[in-house]
């Protein structure tokens, strides 16, 4: 079956010439971006109820842009002046770069991982004397606490924001040839919005093992999977599939 329309269950990338724009142009398909989940900040009162006192921490572990935004939002709500001496441990260059929205980069102690938490761990281990705060969502990947416990550092998790299911009622009568998921939360959102969803002729694309597992648990057939050695990105996996289907 030919592919003409694709729904990506995430916000549209804010960069020019994104791989999705190229895919749309090259393969002559229509791609829509509709987030199936969104993030909502918790209140400073809620953070206090978690017994978190920002003045007690000497280092912050930032795993995403959301973590950056909500740490500084809570600091402002609590009237906490973030000290220049605070150390920042960022999961990736993208997160570290985003930090510039709030701090003067060259005047801060910022340590950057490559992409995964395992790659950031050796740097954190060098600073065992610090008290680390991990501002996160309620959907934190279990490998992060495991890794921090293994390092033997003094750390605290704070839930600063929550992952919430988006209202997708406007999609009830809409059909897409392919729907793309990047997390189990996206699949959960689909079935919370449409409990009677039947896959029928819709092809499902999934990214990552946990998403593949969630799709299977909900009775979905994952027609397109990434990453693989051949297709390390979702756009590459989609392109390969579209080429195969549209030449028939």
UniProtKB/TrEMBL annotation:
One of its GO terms (cellular component) is cytosol. One of its GO terms (molecular function) is uroporphyrinogen-III synthase activity. Residues 20-235 form the Tetrapyrrole biosynthesis uroporphyrinogen III synthase domain. It comes from the Bacteria. Signal peptide: none annotated. GO terms for biological process: uroporphyrinogen III biosynthetic process. InterPro entries: 4pyrrol_syn_uPrphyn_synt_sf (IPR036108), 4pyrrol_synth_uPrphyn_synth (IPR003754), UROS/Hem4 (IPR039793). PANTHER family: UROPORPHYRINOGEN III SYNTHASE, UROPORPHYRINOGEN-III SYNTHASE. This is Uroporphyrinogen-III synthase. The lineage of its organism: Bacteria, Pseudomonadati, Bacteroidota, Flavobacteriia, Flavobacteriales.
